[in-house]
Amino acid sequence: MKIIKKLFMQLFLTIISIVLISGLPDLIMNKNVSMYFQKIKVVLLDVIHLNEMTYMNQGKQRLFLEDIWSPYLYSLIILFGALFIAFCMAQLLTWCTLIMPMFIRRTVKNILTFLESLPDLLVFALVQMGIVLIFKKTGILVSNVASLGAEDRIYMMPIVCLMILPFVYFYKMMILLSEEELGKSYVEMSLAKGMRRIYVLIVHVTRNTSEGIFHFSKSVLWFMISNLLLVEVIFNIHGITHYMYSDFRPEMLAACLILLVIPFFLLYAVFEWTIVRFSKRGELV
């Protein structure tokens, strides 16, 4: 019951934070605090009465909730897909890396340090250039490099672009946390008892680093949500962020961010409950 209360409080504070942040452009442009709080009030009322919220589409006023669901699900598939693939690939490669000699691990970490310093726009551009070069050399179109309209949907390239840097972040963090865990006495004791290193790594070390990775993944998710806008613009995707930049009102920004956050909040709530229930340490960091 205590966890449920905590989660509801976190959700409430998250929504309030989004509402407050959504009004900041008005505050920066007008430099008027009273106008800012008036705008926050309008945003809050629109969020509460989301079923009545409207937007302009080709000169016509339409209900937001009537049109948002298909683009919203499209964006969620891209986000969930990128997060899932990034996490799974990082975990598998972490297990492979940690059974390698130390000099290989050092090399991998140096490469990851370089990759995580790359700007996201550069990564997206390189991926698109790679697709074009492959097509020019082989005549094989691996994937479309842009969507041709609201009904023309592409998944492969947006997911690949969105997952590259999160994969690098997860991979490096998993290696660092696992190496720290491998230095603890219970690992040496397990190995001395004859347990295989890969078994200790997968069963014990992975479980004991899961809390740290879980909390780290929250910041990675916010990074991915911010990059979703870039991905959808670059690939001409008609997703949820299309409404954010085509109708740049604070209430639209707040509504779209809240819709994006809620499913991930519920997913993380389930994971948090699972960690609390099944972790041997039995308490959150």
Provide keyphrases for this structure.
285 residues, MetI-like fold, membrane, 2 domains, transport, two-stranded antiparallel sheet, MetI-like_sf, cell membrane, mainly alpha, transmembrane helix
Strand order of the largest sheet: 1-2
Radius of gyration: 22 Å
Indicate the CATH topology of the largest domain: MetI-like fold
How many individual helices? Answer: 12
Note the run of SSEs as H and E.
HHHEEHHHHHHHHH
The helix/strand class is mainly alpha
Task: State the low-pLDDT regions, or none.
Answer: 280-285
Strand proportion: under 5%
Q: How many strand segments?
A: 2
Keywords: Cell membrane, Membrane, Transmembrane, Transmembrane helix, Transport
Organism: Fictibacillus norfolkensis
InterPro entries: MetI-like, MetI-like_sf
Subcellular location: Cell membrane
Question: What's the SSE blueprint?
Answer:
Layout: H1 2-22, H2 24-30, H3 33-48, E1 54-57, E2 60-63, H4 64-67, H5 69-97, H6 102-115, H7 120-138, H8 156-182, H9 185-192, H10 197-234, H11 241-246, H12 250-278
Antiparallel strand pairs: 1-2
Helix pairs in contact: 1-12, 2-3, 3-12, 5-8, 5-10, 6-8, 7-8, 8-10, 10-12
Membrane topology: Multi-pass membrane protein
Pfam families: BPD_transp_1
Transmembrane segments: 7-28, 72-99, 111-134, 154-171, 220-240, 252-271
